[in-house]
Amino acid sequence: MDDFEPTIIAFVCNWCTYTAADLAGTSRLTYPTNVRLIRVMCTGMVDPKYIIKAFLEGADAVLVSGCHPGDCHYINGNYKARRRMKLLKAILPRYGFSEQRLKLTWIGASDGIQFARTIREMVEEIKELGPNEARNAAVV
Amino acid sequence: MKPKIGRALVVGGGISGIRAALDLAETGYPVTLVDRAPHLGGVLSQLDNQFPTNHCGMCRMLPLVDRDAGAQYCLRKGLFHENIDIRTSTQVVGIEGEAGNFTVRLKRQPGFVDPVACIGCGRCADACSVSVADDFNAGLSMRKAIYLPVPHMLPNTYVIDPAACTRCGECINVCPTGAIRLYREGRQDFSVLVVDDEYTVRDSIKEWLEEEGFSVETVGSGEEALDLIKQQSFRMMLLDIKMPGIDGVEVLKKAKDLFPDMTVVMMTAYATVETAVEAMKTGAMDYLMKPFDPEDLAGKVIGVYEAEEAARAEEIEAGAVVFCGGSEGYDPSTGKNTFGYKVFSDVVTGLEFERLISGTGPGGGGALLRPSNGEPVKKIAWIQCVGSRDLQTDSDYCSGVCCMYAIKEAMLAKEHGPEDLESTIFYMDMRTVGKAFQRFRDAAETDQGVRFVRGRVHTVYQDTHTGKLVVSYPGEKSRRIEEDYDMVVLSTGQKPSSGTDKLAEAAGIELNPWGFVRGEPFLPAKTSREGIFCGGSFSGPKDIAESVISACSASLLASATMHSAGKGIAVAGDDTPEYIDVSHQAPKVRVILCECGGSLPEGIDLRRLAAGLEADPFVESVSFVSRICTEEGWESLAEKVKTKGYNRLLVGACTPYAYTRRIRELGGEVMLDPSLMDVCDIRSPEFAYGEETGGDAIEKAMRRSLSTGISRLRSVDPLPKQTVPVTRSALVVGGGIAGMTAALAIAEHGYDVHLVEASEHPGGNLGWLHSTVEGNDTAILLEDTTQRIEKHPLVHVHTNTTVVSAFGEVGNFFTTIETADSGPQTIQHGVVLIATGGREAETRSYGYGTSDAIVTQKELEEKVAAKAIDYSAIESVCMIQCVDSREEPRNYCSRVCCPSTLKHILQMKQQNPDISVYILYRDMMSPGFAESWYTEARKAGAVFIPYTTYAKPVVSQGEEGGSKVVISTREPLLDADVQIHADLLVLATGIVPNLPEELAGAFGAECDEDGFFREAESKWRPVDSLKEGVFGCGIALGPGSIEGSVATAGAAAQRALRILSKNAISPAAVTARVRHSLCVTCERCIAVCPYGARSIDPDTNRVLVNAVMCQGCGNCASECPNSASVLDGFFDGRMLDMIDMVME
């Protein structure tokens, strides 16, 4: 299992976390190649079905990251995301997915370092946890 | 005929400059935005966190209407708008002409790095051997001579600090794109004549200078030199003084007669220094002492050359100019009391503190550590009023921002430091003068445990044993108290920006006694020169919201100037290009990849990558361009898109943001909607993963990035959008000074305005106010404004009239108003401004109503005006501040009462200096220059006694039959109870708003918990409501002075003009729509929309989306249980497809 490289899908909001990811890039902060960014306008538009789809496609973890509370470009989209993620986390285990595989963070535009750190930590955590359960089980 | 449109110049690219530029650009004017720094953003580029969210949110300033005209990304990254021409490293050196027709001379600092060619790879900085303090981190970290001015900014191109650069040229050697020039090519045209009788000297100089790229001629005598300069032109002459025949000084005189512009540097041996000095009086620029070092000589010549290059000014035409030069932080090390700043490294300024905890700060991690030893900070103190409210530092004004930023920082310290961190703020008055400020302070104290101590710290020293800082301050009964801290933050105030005086001179505008730009009475945005306006803290200390408001009002005045000079925005024709309709075509994506001049890491095969992409049936073709970032590269790309056969374009390059403007232009050329074109970042994977990751992984990441881009473009829905027509007239509710000012401003731009006033006459509170503390006459303002209102043909005043009901949305509101004698009528209008004002609060506290000697401020004002006060009969006056205010339920500061109190004190003292005046206050609120009146009042002998809400003053009747009232309170410095027997007790009761909730609700706006108009965002959108097209101004928005009301009125009018200047508003590319066949009208999307853009059409029972109000967040789409609500460009199919793509 040592050479297990998890795949992480990150839904990042256009305003804060995407900017932070970009800053991490331009600041030459290296972070693991495991993360695949999908830019969305707001974390509030991340439909739980996208996350379920990502898990079913074999993603080992999903990160949803947006603006800090009170900071959302669209006033309150991140609060809506928070509510949805909380509910989703509650039901994921019933389908055999560890709720640890879903993470919600707030990373502001100037937090390039925090973005790189979050990805690194997440990769470590998921390496411990092992591959997505769906990879070994038939999903019907 | 092409409409005549004036260009506006905005000077300064801080928050106010950005606001002013965006305002004018959104109204349709072309704008030139200049900043002397190499980047935009001003001080806010260094501040990550703003009160009240303690985060950012600056992006909310971006255009909401016609969003696609600007780039939609983090505003701290940079600004883009198609009407704004941004010029950094540029200064204004002169303004000629008059309002409407200025000719402005701009001077650009020499740029050594070509911003177009620089890809921001950073190899130059690695190669640079110079290390200097980094201004961006307030000097707390080091940077190279070639550096990124702001790490998160776009374009992220490197710049060279000319003062630090040694011109060693190492960076040029490592630059992969040849972007660094150090002006070498230009040097060929800079010809130097070397005159020296010694062959070896002139020959070696020639060699040295030619090595630096200059063209050099040499001659051996004065005669030859004079002959040669007549035949050939030289920019510079190096001239030996002692020569046989005509000596150097003689040559200099003759040469200067012939060519006064030529720069002459004398060369001299020690013996003739005096002659050399003499020669400088004749016109030599400098002298060099022989023998000299090649580097010194070359440095001097390069210096002259660069200065000449820089001095080449460019001229632009501008109809109006808005100065937003900002202010700068006070440097405590220059003061008499430095509080140990620059002596102890744990003493920092507020700005340095913000950098220390920033993610892009010197520590990098954002943890709060002591600069001296890197240990966590456990106890921290803020010292207020450093460089403010201090006669010793020549700042008899309040900087207005430090109290709030100290509170914010104290809260942030808790986030970034250990949980049990103790923070203390030492203050004189906590000036919580804004709407939500007092509650913020209370929360800091009660919820976060921030300790507030009233007292002026006099010394900060270090305990040599513990290394801790000792803060020494006077406590009760003036006993000295000493406390240990790990870190001390000095809340430094705002000073005029360096160079304000020079700029003011160049622009011909006047400064005030403190060195800020002087504004006109009641109109601080107007400078002493017609057509030149001023926004933000250039005219005095301001916080973000005030800066934004003043910038808005300055841009309004600029717009009015251009309009009256005949350069207004013409009724805009439909100038949007007719894009090819591709809605019924299968997607065909043309992909063009940048080869980055061959500098891609090893192991990446672009051809292999291309072959893979071409296998996708939706890809039309893949081709290559050597370097898209260069002019030639872009032209070659433009050539490649001319041939038909595709209907989507994907460009693979670096920094996608940088191409926004070009993509839009390209779209116009090839008639392809820019939303069908995209730039995809294929360089970041290399940077993010590090080169050691290997070409394979990077190539894979590049392919993923491109596939995602293709998938995104494939699913862009090119359906045409409906525009929203605009009724080009405004409704202003409330005829006070704010309402009248706003109505006039809109009418002066040529639009009808209905001004609705409930009472018999317009005028509002100006009806009873007579003067201000500054001594300005309000009667003149009132008379002037009402006359202009009455005379203006486009202002329709409806007095004795109220709003009955309203419906509609931005562009088209229908409001029914009812006039007392003529009944109801319905008005159609595009926007609405709410200016219903406020009134003095009533009170039952402090014995009000029990004695004629107890009056409110308004009653005193009326008595003074009616000359009903016999000053000679008064011995003693007491004034109580904050009556029923700044505590629940009216927990806000009314702003106007303290300046009014100061006015009343000075009036009384002027009439009868023997009157004893006692002011019982909690915090004296005299922000900005009003502070000087506080100083005056104290000089006049008024006695200020603080009280707290725990121990309020008690008022009782005096002796039986006497007219005096007795006020008892605690004097904290004496630590004793005092009694004041006063002939007059004045109560400062503050302001309450006049805004009925139903009125705000009729237009879709809201009231806040105190009944004021709820703004969309207190800092970035201070006069808008969340509902587009509804604005608030004046006291309806929050308590404020007349100047404040005029400024918010201007700002609201400007925000309204942005909409009225268009016949119709076209929606942005990314907006939501409803698939009615799937919609069950559960209305959850309506509830979830933060902008109120959704409604139910009562006739069809369908959910409607106002495409102009919709900002494209997609919250409705994820809320919809049926996937009936979709966001263009992000519908489910596409999102699921993208997930597939990235998982490949």
Could you give the topology of this structure?
The complex is a heterodimer of chains A (140) and B (1144).
Chain A lengths: L7 E6 L3 H10 L8 E6 L7 H9 L4 E6 L10 H15 L10 E5 L5 H18 L11
Parallel strand pairs in A: 1-2, 1-3, 3-4
Chain B lengths: L7 E4 L3 H13 L3 E4 L49 E4 L2 E9 L2 E8 L14 H5 L3 E3 L8 E3 L1 E2 L11 E2 L9 H5 L9 H4 L3 E5 L3 H13 L3 E5 L2 H10 L4 E5 L7 H11 L4 E6 L4 H10 L3 E4 L4 H18 L1 E6 L1 E4 L3 E3 L17 E3 H7 L22 E8 L15 H15 L5 E6 L9 H10 L4 E4 L4 E4 L6 E6 L5 E6 L1 E6 L1 E3 L3 H8 L24 E3 L9 H24 L21 E6 L11 H9 L4 E7 L5 H10 L7 E6 L6 H11 L6 E5 L2 H6 L5 H20 L9 E2 L3 E5 L3 H11 L4 E5 L21 H14 L3 E4 L2 E9 L2 E8 L3 E7 L1 E4 L3 E3 L13 E3 H9 L10 E5 L16 H15 L4 E6 L9 H9 L3 E4 L7 E4 L7 E7 L4 E7 L1 E4 L3 E3 L3 H6 L27 E3 L9 H19 L3 E2 L6 E3 L9 H5 L5 E4 ...
Parallel strand pairs in B: 1-2, 1-16, 2-3, 10-11, 10-12, 12-13, 13-14, 16-27, 18-25, 19-20, 19-25, 20-21, 28-29, 28-30, 30-31, 33-34, 33-39, 34-35, 39-50, 41-48, 42-43, 42-48, 43-44
Antiparallel strand pairs in B: 4-5, 5-15, 6-7, 8-9, 17-26, 22-23, 23-24, 32-51, 36-37, 37-38, 40-49, 45-46, 46-47, 52-55, 53-54
Helix pairs in contact in B: 1-14, 1-26, 6-7, 7-8, 11-12, 14-26, 15-19, 19-29, 20-21, 20-26, 23-24
Description of the structure:
The complex is a heterodimer of chains A (140) and B (1144). Chain A is α/β, with parallel strands linked by helices and 140 residues long. Chain A has one domain: Rossmann fold (3-Layer(aba) Sandwich), CATH 3.40.50. Chain A has four helices and four strands. Chain A has a four-stranded parallel β-sheet with strand order 2-1-3-4, sandwiched between helices. In chain A, helix 3 links the parallel strand 3 and strand 4. The longest helix of chain A has 18 residues. With 1144 residues, chain B is an alpha/beta fold. Chain B has eight domains: 172 residues, FAD/NAD(P)-binding domain, CATH 3.50.50.60; 60 residues, no CATH class; 131 residues, Rossmann fold (3-Layer(aba) Sandwich), CATH 3.40.50.2300; 167 residues, FAD/NAD(P)-binding domain (3-Layer(bba) Sandwich), CATH 3.50.50.60; 126 residues, Rossmann fold (3-Layer(aba) Sandwich), CATH 3.40.50; 169 residues, FAD/NAD(P)-binding domain, CATH 3.50.50; 152 residues, FAD/NAD(P)-binding domain; 56 residues, Alpha-Beta Plaits (2-Layer Sandwich), CATH 3.30.70.20. Chain B contains 29 helices and 55 strands. In chain B, the strands form 17 sheets. In chain B, strands 3-2-1-16-27 form a five-stranded parallel β-sheet, covered by helices on one side. Chain B has a five-stranded parallel β-sheet with strand order 11-10-12-13-14, with helices on both faces. In chain B, strands 18-25-19-20-21 form a five-stranded parallel β-sheet. In chain B, strand 12, helix 7 and strand 13 form a beta-alpha-beta unit. The radius of gyration of chain B is 33 Å and the shape is globular. The mean pLDDT of chain B is 90.
